[in-house]
Amino acid sequence: MTGKNNQNYNEEYLNYVKEIAPKTKHLKTLWHAFWVGGVICLIGQFIRYSFMYWFNLYGDQLAGATSMVLIFLASFLTGIGVYDRIGKYAGGGSIVPITGFANSIVSPAMEFKSEGYIYGLAAKMFVIAGPIIVFGVIGSVCTGLIYYILNLFSLI
Amino acid sequence: MIEMILMYLKAFIVGGLICAIAQFIINVTKLTSGKILVYFMLSGLVLQALGLYKYLVDFAGAGATVPISGFGYLLAEGAIKGAKSGLFGAITGGLSSASAGVTAAVLFGYLFAMIFKSKSKYN
Fold it and tell me: Most buried in the list B8, B62, B108, B110, measured by CB within 10 Å?
């Protein structure tokens, strides 16, 4: 008899927890992602300004050089195991910046190094980065062709 | 000087918001990080193909180019520029623009994966 009541009580309590828990967790993860992602972009902006003033880079070259530096830093941090710790705290804040792209390359590459340098390290580098490059290239070729046709008929 | 500080602030807020949107999608849909990266890259690419993402880049600088959607922006931007010089440019322009990122990722990725040993389990 008491057992049944306890069960009901437990269910009610669990529902109550369910109602409360995800919301706070939700907001907390959003905040973590926001500020860590923001700081990574802040560092990116600092690198951007540095390249602008010291190397007179602009446009595509500036964006490329900035992402090269960020990828270098993120690969190194992944190597020494720091980036994974940032990732546990920040979630999306560490995935979406270009540093997360670098992390997604180095992390599986290190993990599968034991399977050899060709089929292990070099092949597994692209487990996550591969699809990005595939869809990126397909998308950019489509964009280029559409703009080429529009140019042909001088619509732009 | 004030302009520079404002730019840092805009980069922080816009970059942070893009990451928060990603976190929101992860919380709600439980998408894996690989899919999130692909979708964000594609959304940047499509937005630039429509001619929109460059306004965000002008506004927020690194806040728009550092997230992976900035990679998609570079790909589309290069293709659009290449299309002006002909069919060959239209096809190759995208990767030419994004070559720095891809090269760095492959080079540094291989290098650091060679040097360091895995500490935590990759999942």
Answer: B62
pLDDT digits (tens, 9 = 90+) for B23-38: 999 888 888 888 999 9
Query: Is B34 part of any domain?
Result: yes
A88 and A55 within one domain: yes
pLDDT at A21: 62
Would the CB atoms of B117 and A110 count as touching at under 8 Å? yes
Residue keyed to tokens 């001088």: A154
Alpha-carbon distance of A55 to B64, in angstroms, equals 21
Please, what sign has the CA dihedral across residues A121, A127, A129, A133?
A: positive
What value of ipTM does the predicted structure carry? 0.90
Residues in chain B with CB shorter than 8 Å from the CB of A143 are 45, 48-49, 75-76, 79-80, 94
